[in-house]
Specification:
By secondary structure, the chain is mainly alpha-helical. The chain contains 10 helices and no strands. Helices cover about 75% and strands about 0% of the residues.
Length: about 170
């Protein structure tokens, strides 16, 4: 999103929340830092959704995090832990001779949980009763945290993400 588009978003919000007493240039720069990597149409819709649903008794100009929450709501994939388990279980069942291929088809959060194609193959050779009870329970208990961490990292600007990856590699 460009700075001009950021200014348009702030103008839309200002139409609904006119009591803003901040320097417009500072606001544009601050909001642009947060939304620079986002699609204008998505942020615009998120701002409109926020204003339309805002039923606070004393509404005031939203902070960027409130709009970002709407953006995240609009872009959610809808993969519940149970839906993700069904995808993983199908991959486990098909992993006999194609574990690497099945692993690569999985969502990134599922790949992270498994750790590698060999784990998928090992689960394919495990008793189905254990996979359907113990492994499933472990998956459902931990996949939400993995997804949250992954989504938080995806929201970081590229330069921050690269800096964090560099810091993690140095610490290893």
């Amino acid at each position: 999103m460009t700075k001009d588009e950021t200014a348009k978003i702030l103008a839309i919000l200002n139409a609904y929340y006119p009591e803003v007493a901040a320097d417009p240039l500072i606001m544009i720069n601050a909001w642009h830092k947060i939304f620079a990597d986002h699609n204008y149409a998505v942020v615009e819709q998120a701002a409109m959704n926020f204003a339309a649903a805002d039923s606070r008794e004393y509404p005031k100009f939203p902070v960027p995090g409130q709009i970002k929450a709407q953006v995240n709501l609009l872009s959610k994939t809808g993969d519940s832990p149970e839906e993700l388990w069904n995808i993983v279980y199908k991959a486990i069942c098909n992993s006999g001779y194609r574990s690497q291929e099945e692993f690569e088809k999985l969502p990134v959060c599922c790949q992270t949980w498994l750790g590698g194609a060999s784990a998928l193959k090992d689960l394919g050779m495990t008793d189905k009763e254990i996979v359907n009870t113990v492994t499933r329970g472990q998956f459902l208990k931990t996949i939400g945290e993995i997804k949250e961490r992954q989504e938080a990292q995806e929201q970081l600007p590229d330069e921050v993400r690269q800096a964090l990856n560099g810091a993690l590699q140095i610490g290893e």
